[in-house]
Amino acid sequence: MIKAAIVGGGPAGSYCAYNLAENGIQSVIFDHTHPREKPCGGLITPLTQEIFPFLTELPVEHSERDKAYFISPYGRRICIFSRKHRIRCFSRLKLDRFLVEMAVAKGAELIKDKVKALERKRGSWKVKTANKSYCVKTLIGADGVNSLVRKNIIGPLNRTNVGLCYGYFVKGLEKEEIAIRFLPHRKGYMWVIPRKDHTCVGIGSSELSSSSRLKRELDVFIGQRYPHVERISEWASLIPNVKDLKTFRTPVAGTNWMIIGDAAGHVNPISGEGIMYALLDGKLAAQAVVDNDPRQFDYMWKEAYGRNLFASIKMRRWLYKKQVLELHCQFLRLRNKLRF
């Protein structure tokens, strides 16, 4: 019997497997999509690097900046400085590949099969792929916003708690600064995040707008500001964007299961940041398995960062008002002046 099976090999799943292996616990990652690029900026914030120092030393190609720009709905441009750590921007293909290889090198096993079905069986789980069935003691769902594990155990994320992103990977903007532009007409923003050999340009909406509408809006933006860029590929993706605190009243852990990362809805609903929460969930979930009590994960994540996440959900209700965003940007500008 497999001690712990993790469905999904993104940052949450891979880091969970790594921490389990460090504690001598057998784990298997099921992920048929590795390696793959993801429709995500791949931005690693200074706070994330402070919590996980190993991110500052990854032998993975990336770009670095010591500042980023926020642009208010009225066009006010604010520079945000980082003093302790530079902001790092990774290709998710390269970052995720390194994390899963780090887990495998430590002793985890990667099975590149798609999980087709799950079945509870006498205190354990039967995990079925297209090729084989596996008996598992503890099941960990790290399989993203459309999580099969979540769907089977507690039900999928309500569509009101899901947003949409659309964007391009382009060449020609690698020397640009990081820019986040809040939109005056919708609850969302555009971004330009330069990586090492290409740039992620996207638009995110906290509501489930049509991808064609977002595409038109982004196309106009790129055509006006960056008409010279070469578009390599385009993408659209659903993202967790929890708007109702009641969502987190439903436990994401039980006697022999846990749901972590995007699958649990653990993404900041204002900034869209999810990598920090994913890594924290991976570490906490592994500790719950080590302690032989998966149920405690539901308490652990709330203690670790629940207040921060809940506050962001409450703030979201009024922060996206243009006047409030403008005042917030003025505050950030004043704070930057006082630092020097």
Outline of this structure?
With 340 residues, this protein is an alpha/beta fold.
Q: If you had to describe this structure to a student in words, what would you say it looks like?
A:
This protein is α/β, with parallel strands linked by helices and 340 residues long. The mean pLDDT is 89. The chain has helices at residues 11-22, 46-51, 92-106, 148-153, 211-225, 275-290, 297-319, 322-339, and strands at residues 2-7, 27-30, 43-44, 62-65, 67-71, 77-81, 87-90, 109-111, 115-121, 124-129, 133-141, 162-171, 178-182, 188-194, 199-205, 230-240, 253-254, 257-259. α1 (11-22) runs parallel beside α3 (92-106), α1 packs parallel to α6 and α6 packs antiparallel against α7. It has 8 helices and 18 strands.
